[in-house]
Design a protein that fits this description.
about 210 residues; elongated; mainly alpha; Endo/exonu/phosph_ase_sf; about 50% helix; 5 helices; single chain; 3-stranded antiparallel β-sheet
C-alpha cells in the first residue's frame, strides 16, 4: 500500500538512500494498526512517522506492535508502542477526580458515608478513626466512579474512535468532492491533448 496520497511523486533517490540506511543498520518496520496516514495538510496525506526496531528488540519483545492513534488537533498522529511484556500487575492507586465535583450527588455521597457508623467497632477514635473513615470512603468513591462515570479510559478511547471515524469520513468526502473530479478533468484533458495530436498528424499526412 502507498504511504502517501496527493501531492508530488516522492523522490526515488532519497527513498532508496533511506531504505539502504535502514537495511545497513538492520532495522525493521513491523507495520502498524490504525489509519495508514500519520500526517495531513490540505489534500496531502502521508505516513511520515515510523518506529523502527532491531532484531534484538524483536527477540526480546516478540509481541511488539505499533498503533497509529487519532491526530485530533495535532498535525501528526501520535504513535503508541505496545510491548505486551509479562509483568506483575500492581493495583491502581486511588486518585481523586476533579470531575466528581461537577456531579450533583457528590456531596451527598461524601456526607452520608462520612457520618455513617464504622463497622465493626464504632468506638475507635483519633487517627485510627480518621484512617478507617478515609479507607471506607475510598472504596465507596471507587464503586461510585465505576458505576456513575463508567470507565474514563474507555470513554476517552470511544471519543478518539469517533474522531478517527470523522477523519476517515472527511477523507472520503474530499475524495468524492475534490480528488475524483480532478481525476476526471485530467482524463478529459489527456483525451483532448491526444485528439489534438491526432488531428495535427492527419493534417501533416494530408499536406
Amino acid at each position: 500500500m502507498r504511504e502517501d496520497r496527493g501531492g508530488r511523486p516522492p523522490n526515488v533517490n532519497v527513498m532508496e538512500d533511506f531504505n539502504s540506511m535502514i537495511n545497513s543498520c538492520h532495522l525493521n518496520d513491523i507495520g502498524y494498526f490504525g489509519n495508514p496516514f500519520t500526517w495531513n495538510r490540505t489534500n496531502l496525506w502521508q505516513r511520515l512517522d515510523i518506529i523502527l526496531f532491531n532484531n534484538d528488540w524483536l527477540n526480546s519483545f516478540p509481541l511488539t506492535h505499533v498503533e497509529h492513534l487519532s491526530r485530533a488537533t495535532f498535525d501528526h498522529a501520535p504513535l503508541l508502542l505496545c510491548i505486551n511484556a509479562n509483568r506483575n500487575i500492581v493495583p491502581a492507586s486511588f486518585r481523586f477526580q476533579n470531575m466528581w465535583l461537577s456531579h450533583k450527588d457528590f456531596s451527598n455521597v461524601i456526607n452520608y458515608n462520612w457520618s455513617a457508623p464504622i463497622a465493626p467497632n464504632n468506638n475507635i477514635s483519633g487517627m485510627h478513626r480518621l484512617w478507617a473513615k478515609l479507607n471506607r470512603l475510598k472504596q465507596v468513591l471507587r464503586w461510585w466512579n465505576k458505576n456513575v462515570f463508567k470507565n474514563i479510559f474507555s470513554n476517552i478511547k470511544d471519543a478518539e474512535q469517533e474522531v478517527t471515524d470523522l477523519e476517515k469520513g472527511i477523507w472520503i468526502v474530499r475524495l468524492v468532492i475534490i480528488v475524483m473530479p480532478l481525476m476526471r478533468l485530467r482524463r478529459i484533458w489527456l483525451f483532448c491533448k491526444n485528439k489534438r495530436k491526432l488531428i495535427g498528424s492527419k493534417r501533416l499526412l494530408l499536406n
